[in-house]
Design goal:
By secondary structure, this protein is α/β, with parallel strands linked by helices. The protein contains 13 helices and 14 strands.
Length: 408
């Protein structure tokens, strides 16, 4: 049970001092999770397991062991007894908190992809350290930390101590400073992965940053096991597209399956780029072929905009696989798409871009979301192949020059 870590349970602990904007940002993050069909449950750290009644763990108001009443100031025996009883009540409450938290996590994991927890036991320890309170509760929480589920990802929301103090005033500037220092150390040492998000932006932007971190650490990096699947016959899809010029983008990733397209990464997507004139045709073919799988999956067609659509294969409310089709790359025009497809390379029964064009696609992806560091790894690995003559967008060129200066 020590330092428990279960790869089938994805726990996200959102921590930080009062006044940093946790609850507001979590609500925005939840909207993004809903938009992207994540099955998730959101809990506050003081809520119980199944009946969801709040528990006050910093109080002994609900006494589990009753003190004795006494008269007189010098009754040392009864005073000593009540001192012990008071501490026993605190121990009971703290142990019960950890047991109920663990039970809630195990129960929630049966039905959801992500368990999003607003505050964690880390905050309970940091709150004590920020005020220099080192009592029995503090040391007990440090011990119980060993028996609590270790979050897969800890998102620490932070800001300047002055801003935190001004927002709520519950912490002095110095206490806020100590809290930030303490929670960062505890979270880093007791979470599988840690990410700090500064809350100096709008709640919607912060919520989006939180979602990107969850999405990346849950699905997009090398630390999670590759899960392959073969329920969808992608070879049939590609054979139907053999007369249409297209390329498959971003096929070289940490979660890629070596036997693709016989098998494919479970829960991921396939990015297909086509010309504008072939866009409707390829969408029509894929939609028709997807109907064959309606007995196995819930098949959803989603039109993101005029130049991008996707077909999602869902098992219950969980994504099994997704096919994205587009004819425009961000920051580029149709001419760029046409050049990519004209220079395409054969790979089994599908096509991929040349390394030089793939590099620009990865640069664009990393610019749009710098949490996806596997794109940065690809850029660093192939940086000598970057050809600026392939791109006309000045903003993208300037960004790339800056990025290269940072990684060289």
């Amino acid at each position: 049970m020590l330092f428990k870590m279960n790869p089938s349970i994805f726990i996200v602990a959102v921590v930080g001092p009062d006044g940093v904007g946790k609850t507001t940002s979590i609500n925005e993050c939840k909207n993004k999770l809903i938009e992207n069909n994540y099955s998730f449950i959101s809990k506050h750290h003081v809520w119980g397991d199944l009946d969801e009644r709040p528990m006050n763990h910093d109080s002994t108001r609900n006494l589990y062991f009753r003190p004795l009443k006494y008269t007189g100031r010098n009754n040392i025996i009864i005073k000593g007894y009540n001192f012990i009883i008071s501490n026993l009540n605190q121990i009971y409450a703290e142990v019960k908190y950890v047991i109920r938290l663990d039970r809630m996590i195990l129960e929630a994991a049966k039905r959801h992809d992500v368990i999003l927890i607003d505050r964690y036991i880390f905050d309970k320890i940091a709150a004590k350290e920020s005020r220099n309170i080192f009592d029995i509760q503090y040391y007990l929480r440090k011990i119980l930390l060993i028996f609590t589920f270790k979050p897969n990802l800890c998102l620490m929301l932070s800001n300047t101590p002055l801003e935190i103090h001004n927002r709520k005033g519950e912490l002095s500037i110095n206490e806020a400073k100590l809290y930030l220092k303490s929670i960062k150390k505890i979270a880093k040492n007791n979470s599988l992965y840690f990410n700090e998000i500064i809350t100096n932006k709008s709640p919607k932007v912060i919520g989006n940053d939180m979602y990107n971190a969850i999405n990346y650490f849950n699905t997009d990096n090398k630390f999670f096991k590759k899960k392959s699947a073969e329920k969808i016959n992608l070879n049939e899809f590609f054979n139907l597209l053999k007369d249409i010029p297209f390329v498959v983008l971003k096929n070289e990733t940490p979660y890629a399956v070596n036997s693709f397209p016989d098998k494919y990464p479970h829960g991921k997507d396939l990015d297909i780029l086509v010309t504008k004139k072939d866009f409707k045709n390829i969408i029509s073919i894929i939609k028709k072929e997807s109907k064959k799988y309606k007995d196995i999956f819930s098949v959803n067609f989603i039109k993101d905009n005029d130049y991008k659509s996707k077909i999602r294969f869902l098992e219950g409310n969980k994504l099994h696989y997704q096919i994205d089709v587009s004819f425009i790359i961000e920051f580029c025009d149709n001419n760029f798409t046409n050049k990519i497809i004209e220079s395409k390379l054969k790979s089994r029964n599908y096509f991929i871009p040349t390394k030089q064009y793939e590099l620009w696609i990865r640069i664009i992806e990393y610019k749009l979301n710098n949490k996806k560091t596997h794109h940065l790894d690809y850029i660093i690995k192939n940086k000598n192949l970057i050809n600026f003559s392939l791109i006309e967008n000045k903003e993208l060129k300037d960004y790339t020059h800056k990025l290269l200066n940072e990684i060289i």
